[in-house]
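Record type: monomer structure entry
Structure origin: computed from sequence
Chain ID: A
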Amino acid sequence: MASLRSRLILSHLAPLLIVIPLAGLILIYTLETQVVLAELTDRLTERANLIIQALEDQPEVWKEDDQAAIFISDISELVQGQFLLLKSDGSLIASYSSESPAQTIDASQIEGLDTAMQGEKSVVIHYTLQNPSVEVLLPVIDARQQLVGIVAVSQSLESIYSNIGNVRTSILIILVFQLIIGVIIGIYLAGKIERPIGRAATGVIDIAAGIDIDPVPEAGPREIRQLSAAVNILAERLRILEETRRRSLANIVHELGRPLGAIRSAVHMLITGNVDHQVEHELLEGVNREIKRMQPLLDDLALLHGQVTGSMSLDLRSTDFNDWLTSSILPWRAAALEKGLEWNTDIPVNLPAITIDQQRMAQVLGNLLSNAVKYTPQGGSLLVSAGVEGAEIWFRVSDNGPGIDPQEFELVFEPFFRSQKTSRFPQGLGLGLTIARDIVNAHGGTLELTSALEQGSQFTVRLPIEPAR
């Protein structure tokens, strides 16, 4: 019983093994006590009355043992079961038994005898599983209303089993058939429940062993479908995490390898000492530039680590949103114009003050504008807009660059993602949008993306005017 299947089968069969036999016993008991024994009681009562009528013409039977024996002998062929003649004091006069002719009868052991001696009818039913029986005792009253004797007749069901045996057999056959059907249904239902659970369990075991699994079929009852769906989600998330890990290592090696290679070459030349002062100065400047290029990458990695470990903190301050937004976009306006892009703004002058971490939010804005400038081709245009909707203030960076495939809308916010379908996000560590979204979420806001291939992109940041308390 160690397997789930065997326990499920047992759980289905245990009630059947208890209920069906119990129901069969109750049915047989009801049939025999309420129908067969009741009918037998009526028959025995009628038989006893007939015997009493016959005795009315033979009063000497109660006084002479030989006459009693002759009477018993005369009616023995007509009587089934046991027949007794008792005196008014309960002593036995004569007896006959078609079931046990040689049986010695002790009148004192007859149940209901006291009741019959008081002039009342007595019916005693002995119900046992092996041989139920009925005993009827009728008092014999003379014309003077005096008790002259007792007639006792009894019969067991064993003597009439030929009449009810088929019924018992039919009941037993039906019960056995029900048990067989119950076993078949129990095995079927247990298998139907165990199979999807087994597939889900196998999937979890394979995941724990680092084995890629095929999606688990989501079939069966609602709870099992939810379990299978959870296993599939877990497998997909682990797959994405594994891909992210591999991609992150490749990106880090790629992004840090190039500047480190340049720095190593410059350092090697400086160590050899075979360079003049001018070249030495240029090499040192090159090393400094490469170090500056690596610094944002290291900052992004440090910030991402802080977000993962839950250690990112915000320096929230009440901020004039117009002044902050206008001053924050100035450096990017120069970069856009230098690349030959059209620069546009649509910023109302009456935007309310808002509580934000100015430096962190400037990092979000800078990331969005940096991507827009980087990936919008020369001759394209950029638009920075802002506004208020209800209890939120928003700003948006729009471009008419290559756009983003809708299938990648969620992926672009994943760490280390680099698109393979478009020219957008082909390089870098792929942390900018991840960090931007996390910073916005930390402010209680949202970062939304709207884009279509070859039609540009819109990144919209929505922030609550009043910070959550």
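Annotation 1: Residues 222-308 form a domain with the Helix Hairpins fold (CATH 1.10.287).
Annotation 2: The radius of gyration is 51 Å.
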